Amino acid sequence: MHLTALMDCLGSTSCAVTQVSTGLIIGMLLFLVASGLSLIFGVLGVINFAHGAFYMLGAYFAMSAYRATDNFFLAMLAGAIGVAVVGIVFERTIMSRVYGCNLLMQLLVCYAVILILDDGVKIVFGSEYQMMGMPEFFVGAPIEIGGGFIPGYYLFMLGVSAVAGLALWFGINKTRLGKIVRALAINPQMVASLGINTTVLYAAIFGVGSLLAGVAGGLAAPIRSLTPGMGLSILIESFIVTVIGGMGSIPGAFIAALLIGFTRAFGAIGFPLFVDGTMFALMAIVLVVKPNGLLGTRVAT
Amino acid sequence: MSKTSKPIGRRAFVAGSAIGGAAAITGFPHIAGAQAKTIRVGMPTILSGRVAILGTSSRIAVRLAFKQINDAGGIAGRTLELIDRDTQGRPDEAAKVTRDLINNDGCELIIDGEASSGAFAVHEVIRALPVLCLHTNSETSSLSADPKMLIKTAFRCARQGIHDAVAGGSYAAAQSKAKGLKRWMTCSPDYAYGRDNTAEFMQFAQKFDPSIELIDQVWPKLFAPDYTESITKALQVKPQAMYSALWGGDLVAFIEQSNLYRLFGNTAFFGAGLGDPPVLTAIKQLPPGLNTAYRYNRNYPNKPSNTAFAEAFNPLAGYDPTNWAWQNYTAAQFIIEALKRTGGKTDGIALANEIRGMKLASPMAVAETIEMRASDQTIIGYPISWGRTVPKAPWVQDFAPFDWGTVLELEADWKKEKGYV
């Protein structure tokens, strides 16, 4: 434990700014993935264990588009849209067949899809790690704020994550479609009896959830090495986030993702050998004190 | 009158079945037949997952060496064939695959292309099935330095951690004295290799320059996707130099993410795994002046045979040789030379007797030959230099040669400390 170093950091503007930004960077990317997972669970009541594989696909789609077009923004779009399409196809052809089945069946189906997607990526892109790269304008010197440093690309990443999170919140809470989606989560039979095509809605929700994973994958591609199976580690962290935040709660996922981000950022200074342990301890405490998570209202069965 | 064969009796059938069943269960060594035309060489290695390049570049190198000798007419009328199997980096799978290669696939020799964890498992299989085995990718010193590990037919044809630690520590100390790099930090993967390698490097760096101070250490997980927290910690600690045992895709991600913070503007970087050409070329913005241990470079050792090796390897792989590639190519050359001396006979003990102490004229030799040292059955005389990165090919230059005599002297002291001699 380096508590003195942690206190020194909190007392220094430059250190606090750098570490807060680090927490935001880690947390917001995690939020993007976890919010998609939460959205799908909240409305459809299924846990998409293949969500990490979708994140991986987003990264590979973005890299391919960037190599083909040399256009970074087109690459980001390709990552997001490409994965949304894959998500919709996955929901219509596979996942919809296990709605209402027990958790084990859903887990097995998703695990099979993870293996297929990982091997598919290996066949198409090879098993070696790859890097996407980024445009020159992101490679400049980091921006100095209060003596701390934040790289330009991370500011862009934070911006995109924040916009995506806000759009999701606005769409669900402030639009007519959002009302229908919320109603669908509570009483799908009633929504169907009003003449609304719930099958299309389910597919669309799954697509949006997958799109969020695709956005996260695309944003991560320029700074992380791409390998088949890269979705596993973020899937585990996303589950921690959704459990802490509350299954199905997007605001909960936001709070939990930031908690994890700040734990990692400041933990590296104060208790570097117990950062992972702290994340799991946090999850255990939340499960004991509030079994439904910080803002959750329902639990997975 | 023709003879009719005697029908198989019940007892004979039961006895035959029992013997057949026992053979199937225990796995009798494959009987290849005296002097089969093709000599099959088995290779357990990692061909999938994040370190697949270790296995893929290894097998390409061995196939290249075998093709060259086969095209030249083979050895005593026999040709060489490589049979490779994916172990996914799992030690249990490595042991099983090795047994299968020998017992069922008819492999008469083994080139063990496993990383350290699997190499120890393969080593124990060879203890029981004493065919000739060359470990080609394990850098863990104890595999050959610990006398308890000695097996007559098992050799290491790979760089060794202690050799790199001595050379790296000396290079770091020289840089420290010249540039005043006294405050050091380390950032290495949190597993056995990362911790051992880092400890040995810092031990020798401080031995050569006692004024070096280790001010902090961070241990990101192996295969961690994000290093931001380690990088921003380094920004707070402000070390003058950083040592890292990160490698492969992890190192590429670390360098790219560090670039965003301009970490290397104020901190001199020393990397154990940066010198592999696929790593160097995967980094989109390779900063100049990073210090790296030698892994492979087509310009060093500066010999036509080394360039020829790179020229032959690159079209097959799509990239320049890796550290694992040259080690496997060299292992194949040791095997070829030993087979020439035995007239194509593959008896493990006979081949081992030829390889033990063999001095091989190699493109990778710092002087004229790489020697398979007889005392601990491991190679010496390979490149252990450090160089500095440049943003374009050849990616690393200014290799500082290091005297092997000093390495051997300090290695002997280290063995005494460890109780190995």
Strand content of chain B: 15-25%
What about the largest sheet of chain A? 2 strands, antiparallel
Give me the side-by-side strand order of the main sheet of chain A: 1-2
User: Main β-sheet of chain B, in a few words?
Assistant: 7 strands, mixed
Distance between the termini of chain A: 39 Å
Identify low-pLDDT runs of chain B.
1-8, 20-33
Overall structural class of chain A, as computed from helix and strand content, comes to mainly alpha
Radius of gyration of chain B (CA) equals 24 Å
Shape type of chain B: globular
Strand content of chain A: under 5%
Quick recap:
The complex is a heterodimer of chains A (about 300) and B (about 425). Chain A has about 300 residues and is an all-alpha fold.
Task: Please characterize this protein's 3D structure.
The complex is a heterodimer of chains A (301) and B (421). In chain A, 72% of the residues lie in helices and 2% in strands. Chain A is built from twelve helices and two strands; from the N terminus they run αααααββααααααα. In chain A, strands 1-2 form a two-stranded antiparallel sheet. The relative contact order of chain A is 0.21. The mean pLDDT of chain A is 92. Chain B is 45% helix and 16% strand. In chain B, the strands form three sheets. Chain B has a seven-stranded mixed beta sheet with strand order 7-6-8-9-10-14-15, with helices on both faces. The longest helix of chain B has 20 residues, at 52-71. Chain B starts with 9 loop residues before the first helix and ends with a helix. Mean pLDDT of chain B is 91; it is low at 1-8 and 20-33. Classes of the chains: A mainly alpha (301), B alpha/beta (421). The A-B interface holds A 9, 15, 18-19, 21-22, 25-26, 122, 127-131, 133-134, 138-139, 141-142, 149, 151-154, 220, 222-225, 227-230, 233-234, 264-265, 267-269, 272-273, 275-276 and B 47-50, 52-53, 56, 218-219, 221, 223-226, 228-230, 232-233, 235-236, 248-250, 252-253, 256-257, 259-262, 278, 282-285.
